[in-house]
Amino acid sequence: MLSKRTVCLALAGALMSGAAAFTPAQAAELKAEVIHWWTSGGESAAVKVFADQFTKAGGTWIDTAIAGGANARTAAINRVVGGKPPTAMQFNTGKQFDDLVAGDLLRDMDALAKAQNWDKIVPKPILDAVTRNGHVYAVPVNIHAQNWLWYNKAVLEKAGAKEPKTIDELFATLDKIKATGVIPLAFASQKTWERGLFNSLLAAQSRDLFVNVYTKRDVALVKSPEFRKVAEAFGKMRDYTDPSSKGRNWNDATALVITGKAGMQFMGDWAKGEFNAAGQTVGKEYGCVVVGPSYVMGGDVFAFAKIKDADQTAAQDVLAKTLLDPETQIKFNAKKGSVPVRTDIDVSTLDACAQTGAKLLSDPKAQAPAVELMTPATVTGAVEDVISQYWNNPSMPVDDFLNKFAAALKSDI
Amino acid sequence: MKPRRFLRHIPGFIALAPATLVVLVVYIGCVAWSIQISTTNSRILPSSQYVGLRQYEILFANERWLTSLQNLVIFGLLFIAIAIAIGFLLAILIDQKIQGEGLFRTVYLYPFSMSFVVTGLAWQWILTPANGIEKVVRDLGFPNFRFDWIVDQQMVIYTIVLAAVWHAAGLVMAIALAGLRGIDAEIWKAIRIDGIPKWRAYLFIVIPMLKASLATAVVLLSISVVRLYDLVVAMTHGGPGIASEVPAKFVIDYLFERQNIGLATAGTTVMLVTVLAVLTPYVYLQHRRSLKGGHA
């Protein structure tokens, strides 16, 4: 049995240690605590590039890696609101930090953006995604394209098919693969990837339609014949997947392409890591192609909270500058499998897919922002539910789907 | 008389004060706060802009929320009924003074030692068409056998019931067995002398005497119904489509991934009101009974 006094002492001790944790730690020169969610093998190798470059610039990198994007963001936001923000925190390019900007909790990076000429070197959708009311509030570090089609070269060769560039060619290729008895489309039937497939098809149909549907959220666009065509194509895709695709993880689907059990997979450029880990090289065992006219861009950014401590502000300045340094960009993106956000640097050291990506990136007519950049998370989620319902219910009429889709776009308060 | 009784209880009040404070501030305070948040347009950060019942309108226009509520009812009724039936049956079987009782007890209780995540993953593998049961039966020489409930939007919720029953039946068995072992040997003697068949003895004499065990089991199972989340995430992710979504998952998704604490707290408020609506008559009944009979 604990005596009352012991309990009191323990409580007092707990309170004091709590208080100690809340007094600002005396920061040495240029100490930067960074919250991020890059915890897998390839990801930690990539973030180490940032740490090394920052150390080279005279700083000390304090790594606070939290597994899982939502967890890391929640932790970072709680710390900011609680008054003890980290030096820098990761977000996905898009609307995730809107509330922090609205609450006047983030530093603007206007000076840096001006010094590094962001308006010339950063693609417009990415720059727009970090700009609020004319001020830049985050540093974009990479661009992940979400609408790549990955394919097994041997499977396509055997089927006598070539890499598809349009939706019609895509169906022709799928049919040919199907005839050889291989699973035509490796698919991971989870909400995120169902949405991914739909948006890849929408972007393949028309860049303008893709952008306008999500930015204008106009019912008329959803009811247009062009959008209906995409919905029908999406429905037809069910016939090219295998029954075990339900609930499958995306990397297991990629493994099907790697082993030749399936022909192709729509997935972001992070799938490249799986091919590389299996010892395959692009152009030899596997290929990558963007179907249609749009290059759908997402990615990651770092945001910097307002901190009164001058040392911390200085650390933020140095870190922010380091992130977009050309050397850092090339080294980081080579490890991460993404494409640099700067269009003014030499990408010849990156692999063939990344080079294709970088080329598409510099063409404003191909640049399309990912859905997360256009709609708030709650709308993205509601749309995802609708797409998933439609995919998993082949008997749902297309009109029902279109109505629900339009309603989901308007589900924001 | 009264003031003295009060004085006598002062140390008790002091001892209970911290706990009372925690209940008042942490529980009631947080509940009040989240109800307040549900009347604002909050997204990631709490906002103070009042929007009335708009979040509730959005919530009840949301098909996923409605499906979640429906699933909770289906799951709750079936899960509690089946788990209790199987649990009591197992307990009665074990109660027959069988050999190797310890072994069976352990085997039946084993699933309960596993987390819902492990349970969910295991059953996902077992039920996946072309992989689990379906493949085994087909390989046995029934090539047209179909068992694809887990990918069928109409049936998927029953697979969750299946996994949850598998998980919880052992616990019910343990509770029921403890109750059975508490039955007075004299009663069994009387039953034998009267020549009552065993099944009738259990059904009409013994089980009615296990009311307390039954109540414990129902309360424990009901709690896992309301907080049902991890099993669904591990097993189906709420899919196919939105067919196996549940309210707790809706709330967590909107709280974190979808960054909409206004809508999420509207969901928690509805859940709270539902639980209270079920609980209040029960508590009232208990209270009246204890007033009448001295003990329930």
Q: What is the secondary structure topology, with strand pairs?
A:
The complex is a heterodimer of chains A (413) and B (296).
Chain A: H1 4-22, E1 31-36, H2 41-56, E2 60-65, H3 69-81, E3 88-92, H4 98-102, H5 110-115, H6 118-121, H7 124-130, E4 131-132, E5 135-136, E6 138-145, E7 148-152, H8 153-159, H9 167-179, E8 183-185, H10 191-205, H11 207-216, H12 219-222, H13 225-236, H14 250-258, E9 262-267, H15 272-277, E10 286-290, E11 295-303, H16 310-323, H17 326-336, H18 352-361, E12 367-369, H19 371-374, H20 377-392, H21 398-409
Parallel strand pairs in A: 1-2, 1-3, 8-9, 11-12
Antiparallel strand pairs in A: 3-11, 4-5, 6-11, 7-9, 7-10
Helix pairs in contact in A: 2-17, 8-9, 10-11, 10-13, 10-20, 20-21
Chain B: H1 2-37, H2 54-61, H3 63-94, H4 101-109, H5 116-127, H6 133-139, H7 156-181, H8 185-194, H9 198-209, H10 211-226, H11 230-235, H12 247-255, H13 261-293
Helix pairs in contact in B: 1-13, 2-13, 3-7, 3-10, 4-7, 5-7, 7-10, 12-13
